[in-house]
Every structure is written in C-alpha cells, then in structure tokens.
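User: Okay, second chain of the day. Same drill as before: sequence in, structure tokens out.
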Amino acid sequence: MKYQFENFPIITLTTDFGLADYFVGCMKGVILSINPNVNIVDISHEIKSYDVTGCCYFLSSFYKYYPPNTINVVVVDPGVGSSRKPLLIKADDYYFIGPDNGIFSSVLENADHAEIYHLTNSDFFAKFVSSTFHGRDIFAPVSAYLSLNTHISKFGEKIENIKLLNNIKPKLSHSKIIGNIVYQDRFGNLITNINKDLTKNIERIVIGKVQIDKISSSYNEVAKGELLALVGSSGFLEISANMGSAARIIDRSSEVVCLLN
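Assistant: Same drill. Structure tokens below.
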C-alpha cells in the first residue's frame, strides 16, 4: 500500500510542554528542517503535566476533524528514557506518533483498522538522541520524514500489542454505570468516560457526596454556581457548574455512579 500525502501535509502537535520553554520551538525547527513545506498545527501544549489519561481523551476529541493522512504527534511522556517504546500508528486514515504509555488507547478502541510500529530505525532519528527529549529527537523527525512519503514500514518493526489504559470504558450492570473522570478543561468542567449512548436511561448521578437528579441540555438550566450534568460537545457526559468550576467542588479521582431507571 502506498501512503500519499498532499503537497502540504499537516502535522499536529499536542504536548504537556507549555510555551515558556524552548521545547515546542525545537520540535518545530526539526520538522521544518526536514520538510519546510509541512503545515504545523498546535493543538495544545497545556495538557496537565504527565496526564496520560487526560491526553488520551483530548486526542480522541479532535483528530477526526482534520483531513485524512494528518500526522498527530502526541508527547505526554512521563516514562521518557525508560524501556517504554516509541510508536508510529496508522489508525484508519490518520497517523499517530508518540510513546507507548496508553495515550493512544481511545484511538485504537475506535479504529476499524490499525497498524502499529515500534520506532527502531535510527536513520530517521536525530544524530544524538537525548534520554529526556524524545519529542525533539525521535517523534519530530519521524513525523517529518513520514510527511515526505517515507513508507510507514521503514520506521521500525510492526508489532501487535501496546499498553492500553484500563479506564477508558465505564463498568456496566443492569442497574448502574460506573465511570471515571478522565479530563478537566479550563472552565473546570469534568469530562467522564461515559458516552452519550449510555445516558438515555440515567435517572440519577452520584459522585461522592454529590447527587445530580437529571441530565440537563444547557448550563442555564440551573442557578449560577450550581452543579449539573450534561452531554458535552465531545459526546461524553460531563459534570459542570453554571458559570463556575465543578473541579473546585468535586475530586477528579471520584467515581461517577449513574443509577438507571
């Protein structure tokens, strides 16, 4: 199979690096030095530090809005320099590059077809690979060479098994759904792993000592500062506060128990 990119391919960058340091700028410099015709799109560099679960959700929420063959470089990598594998994945019509730490769990869960490669061919790495900055020295150059139509199989060994997170799906029974909070956005909304298809028969939601008696369709259905539950734009149940922060009221580590009618 031939992988053909347009004349101006797209590489997206998602990291927990922030913008105060040189890290993102270095990655862009590496990419543009190899392929000056690529379009680099910053998705976010403000993912919470080391938050693999949150980034897994974040990635699944945006990538399908980009054209087919978009290359997504994702670096939230607390295990950098360890034995964890660097990966290149083709999932349906999209490419993903980053660490083997569970960050691609949702992408693979929703893909009809996937090819996974362990990045081992150092011909496509920087000449010197730092043990603390694989974003610059492995993931960035690989993405650039891929954008030049280098065949995916040249980057390393095809593998079948990688690390998957165990909390991307809620637990289901006849009487309740038990989910987890997987992401907190800048407004303090708490997004769960309970998708909209599971919300139809929810009668009540219990999170620790907090109880919410219905699923709302908009924030203004409750008073200012009051908690509510609704299906957010990404298609998952979220716990919010009208013009306030649910994260200030609810511990993100709490289970989300949905009682069914």
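Residues 10-159 form a domain with the Rossmann fold fold (CATH 3.40.50.10790).

User: Thanks, on to the next one.
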